[in-house]
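About this split. The held-out portion is used to measure sequence recovery: a designer receives only the structure tokens and must propose an amino acid at every position. Recovery is the fraction of positions where the proposal matches the reference. Here is one held-out target exactly as it appears in the evaluation file.
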């Protein structure tokens, strides 16, 4: 799995705090209408490590519906996290990144029969 591939990204390597970077981006794009997404992947990594260190017997499962950004999912997959998927699309997105089905929980309380069949086939 390539952790970062073909995705527009800015790596600041300590030049700015996350807040400073976001503020600079807002100022730069003040006349634009397109949204942008900013994530501190180091913070995501540190929080995952803190979780598994503090509760080693509890396997975290990231709720993809909270943020389905491919970089966040790739990083968490690389770190060994499990995934909480609520739709067929979320399952497909996670599995397309090389995550095996045994690391995915299908956790939508209103499951369509076609989605259950899809999950079973994985």
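Reference sequence for scoring:
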């Amino acid at each position: 799995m390539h952790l970062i591939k073909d995705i527009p990204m800015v790596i600041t390597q300590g030049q700015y705090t996350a807040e400073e970077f976001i503020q600079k981006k807002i100022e730069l794009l003040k006349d634009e209408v397109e949204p942008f997404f900013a994530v501190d992947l180091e913070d995501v990594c540190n929080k995952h490590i803190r979780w598994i260190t503090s509760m080693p017997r509890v396997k975290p499962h990231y709720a993809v519906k909270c943020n389905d950004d491919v970089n966040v999912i790739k990083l968490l997959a690389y770190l060994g996290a499990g995934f909480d998927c609520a739709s067929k699309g979320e399952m497909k997105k996670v599995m397309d990144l090389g995550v095996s089905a045994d690391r995915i929980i299908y956790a939508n309380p209103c499951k369509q029969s076609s989605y259950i069949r899809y999950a079973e086939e994985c």
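Annotator remark: The chain has one domain: 18-121.
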